[in-house]
Each structure stands twice: as C-alpha cells, then as structure tokens.
Amino acid sequence: MKTGQGWRGGTGDMQILPGPRHRPPMKRPTWIIILVSLVTVFLICAYMYPPQSSAACYVFSSRGCEAISNWLPPAPARELTDQELASRAVIRDILNTPPTKSEKSKVAFMFLTPGSLPFEKLWEKFFHGHEGKFSVYVHASKEKPVHLSRYFVNQDIHSDQVIWGKISMVDAERRLLAHALKDPANQHFVLLSDSCVPLHNFDYIYNYLMHTNLSFVDCFKDPGPHGNGRYSEHMLPEIEKKDFRKGAQWFSMKRQHAVIVMADNLYYSKFRDYCKPGLEGRNCIADEHYLPTFFHIVDPGGIANWSVTHVDWSERKWHPKSYKARDITKQLVKNITSIDVSVHVTSDEKKEVQKWPCLWNGEQRPCYLFARKFYPEAQDNLLLLFSNYTTI
Ligand SMILES: *[C@@H]1O[C@H](CO)[C@@H](O)[C@H](O)[C@H]1NC(C)=O
Ligand SMILES: *[C@@H]1O[C@H](CO)[C@@H](O)[C@H](O)[C@H]1NC(C)=O
Ligand SMILES: *[C@@H]1O[C@H](CO)[C@@H](O)[C@H](O)[C@H]1NC(C)=O
Ligand SMILES: *[C@@H]1O[C@H](CO)[C@@H](O)[C@H](O)[C@H]1NC(C)=O
User: Fold this and answer.
1) Closest C-alpha to ligand 4, atom 10
2) How far apart are CA 124 and CA 101, in angstroms?
3) Rounded distance, CA 194 to CA 44, Å?
4) 212, 224, 310, 343 — which has fewest CB within 10 A?
5) 3-class DSSP assignment, residue 363
6) Quick one: DSSP state of residue 368?
7) What separation in Å is there between the alpha carbon of 173 and the centre of ligand 1?
8) Where are stretches of biased composition, namely Gly residues (predicted)?
9) Residue 357 CB–ligand 2 contact under 6 Å
10) Contacts of 95 (CB under 8 A, 6+ apart)
C-alpha cells in the first residue's frame, strides 16, 4: 500500500520504495533463502525419485505430476550392466574406425537359398564385365545347388538347416557375413534370396552402396501385435520395450556394421533365447527383429531404416505378391524403380502408415536396387527386359 501511495504521490525516488527502509534488515533475504532452499531440496528429491506411483503423486494432481516430469531434465539413464559396457566399448571403437575404401573395394553378394538359384543366368549378365568389384557367397540350407554360372561355381559356404522364424535364420546370415568378411576388399554386404533380382545395372548398384556411409537396414516401430506384441520382458535390462524394432531381413550393410554384428553376443543371445515362434504365446520372428533392434540401440543414425530390396505387401496377404512371367513388363520395373518414399504400416487397429522419403546422402532418391519375389519362370522375360534396362 505504501508503495502504491508512493507511486501515486510521484514526489520523488525516495517515496517510491519506502517499504524496505522501515522493515528490519535481512528479514526478506532470509525468507527468500529459506524458500529457495526448500524448493531446491524438493526438486532434487522429485528428480531422484520421480513420482511414478499415484502415492508419490498425492501432493499434485496427476496433471501436476505430468507437468513436473515434463519440466525436469530426463531422468538419468539406467546403469549399464558389465556386459553392456564391454559391448558398447567394442562397438564404439569399431564404428570409429574410418572405412578403408579404395578402387579395389568390392560388394559381397550373399545368397540365402534352400537350393539351386533360379536366376543365375540373370545375375551372370548383371556381373559380367565387373570382375574384381564383387564377390559371391551362397548359403544353401536344404540341398546342394547346381550352378549354371561361373560366378557361382565354388562359392557355396558351409551351411546348416534354416527353420523359418527361428534363430537359425539369423545364424545363416551371420555365417554368410563371417565368410564374406574374410576378404578385406569386401566393403559392403548385401543379403539376397533365391527369388531376388537386380533392378539396375552393376555400376548403379555399386555406386549407390559404396558412396554412402549408411547401411540399409529396415527398421520401424510397430506398437501392434506383430511388432512390440512379440517383445518379451526376459530381454531386460539390455533390451527395453521402447527400443524393440521390426524390419524385413533383407539388409545391405557396410563393413563396420558387419563386424559389429560378428562381435555381438549380448543382444544376439537375448533373441536366440527369447524370440522364437510359439514362446509364451508370442510368435516372435528372430530375423525380423534382431538386426533392427540391435542397430536401433547401438547406431540408430547409421542405418537408413529402409531396405534396398523391394517387396510388395499391398495385397495384405500372408505372403507378398509374387511375380509370374506375364507380370514382367517395362511398366512394372519402372513402377518399382521410381518409388522414392519408404512406407511402413503398423499392425495395430490404427494401421498407421509411416512414410519417409528415401534420403541418400541427404538427397531424395529411388529406394530400391533389388526386388522380390519372382517365380523362376519369370527369368526369360527378365533377361529380355534386362538387356534394355541395364544400360540405363
Ligand atoms: C563417410 O565417412 C567418412 C569418414 O567419416 C567421411 O570422410 C566421408 O565424407 C563420409 N562420406 C559420405 C558420403 O558421407
Ligand atoms: C533412422 O531412424 C532413427 C530413429 O529410429 C533415427 O534416429 C535415424 O536418424 C534414422 N536414420 C536416418 C538415416 O535418417
Ligand atoms: C504402375 O503404377 C500405376 C500407378 O500406381 C498402376 O496403375 C499400374 O497398374 C502399375 N503397373 C504395373 C505393371 O505394376
Ligand atoms: C528393348 O529396346 C529395343 C530398342 O530400343 C526395343 O525395340 C525393345 O522392344 C525393348 N525390349 C523390351 C522388352 O522392352
């Protein structure tokens, strides 16, 4: 009131702030110090013991709780386990090793197949004239393949049975990587199936893979039953539900990433033990979750989040669309090679469509280099078409 009077009077500076002069000195600063200390102690407590239960929230309304947790800096990350610390140290070091790319760098084409490869003639045409820039590895899980192309003869690696959905699929991928890593010239590693075909000529694919620092590992968050619904809490503490990811298995990866996959035992063993069909009522498919989740945890910025292998799930059936001889047209190839946005759909009721532009070194480019699935009968038509589109 006094201050107000002083203002109204407007007779001079002395009258504007008369209050403090009449109060006992120190009283107000002491109050401020006590108040600030109390608030500080309270905030420190709230920070160290974030109000998670409703009991801890009784001081606030639930909205108050939310406001406090939004306003505070993020809670400190949980303490890493010994194994995690060791694993992170090794992975960090490998990722920091600069790539040793040179004129002699090769792309490793790794084929995962039950037996003979139906498109060897097509691949031969694709590889022809590019000797020294690629290597081929074949993992045949059921029967010994008969090879028709010289590029495939003697390229079979030791193999083992592969059971759909089980860790044996991931084991076969790791076996291929291990063999391909033996050649130090291999700088990029592509996993392909027997039903895959190339969509561009060799140079286009080689440059696309070699002149970027990304690995093309498909990865997205699916809160639905075919995504996070397959997560098991046995994977804790290293793999939290919020980090669980999904993606198609057909990857292509740079050498450092292939090495960290070889080095990983920690995350791998969690998927081996707790991600399999029919475990505790969940149908977890190891090859759809292990690599996406692993890379999301250890190097999220190092993967593109889409696969360079196209597959058409738009019919929403149990199997993707498979192309027969009569489906092979210029228009089909044009359609697939012009897609430059990657699309993922969640498996919950919302069926949320996640779309991202395919960014290659920051520039939007077509996403796909390979496509599946093609019936063997499609080969002759593909060969005809290939004589045209390989020169584009
Ligand atoms: C890839 O990384 C290397 C080393 O970190 C860097 O020199 C190079 O410019 C990067 N290449 C691209 C295409 O980003
Ligand atoms: C891939 O997604 C992760 C988030 O899950 C993001 O951090 C990363 O930047 C994405 N990669 C690229 C190349 O955009
Ligand atoms: C190509 O795409 C167009 C437009 O989406 C579609 O109408 C057409 O049927 C497609 N053609 C082939 C052969 O897939
Ligand atoms: C390939 O190109 C030739 C000449 O440009 C053309 O006559 C032929 O129809 C093309 N073949 C196919 C399958 O498109």
Assistant:
1) 388
2) 25
3) 59
4) 343
5) strand
6) -
7) 27
8) 1-12
9) no
10) 256, 260, 299, 302
CA of 332 to the centre of ligand 3 (A): 7
Q: Would you list the DSSP string of 294-325? A: HHHHH-GGGEEES-SEE---TT-SSS---B-G
91-133: per-residue pLDDT in tens?
A: 999 999 888 877 789 999 999 999 999 999 999 999 999 999 9
Q: Residues near 176 by Cβ (< 8 Å), separated by ≥ 6?
A: 110, 112, 137, 139, 157, 189, 191
Say yes or no: CB of residue 116 within 6 Å of ligand 1.
no
* Structure confidence at residue 1 (pLDDT): 40
Residue with the two structure tokens 């020169």:
391
Q: Report whether 304 contacts 208 (CB < 8 A).
A: no
Express each pLDDT in 39-98 by its tens digit: 776 666 555 554 444 444 444 444 444 555 555 556 667 888 889 999 999 999 999 988
Per the prediction, the chain carries an average pLDDT of 84
For residue 181 the two structure tokens come to 């890593």
Q: What is the pLDDT of residues 25-40, one digit of tens each?
A: 556 667 777 777 777 7
Cα separation, 309 vs 367, whole angstroms? 8
Please report how the helices 82-96 and 255-263 are oriented relative to each other, as an axis angle in degrees rounded to 10: 160
Ligand minimally distant from the alpha carbon of residue 245: 2
Q: What is the pTM of this model?
A: 0.79
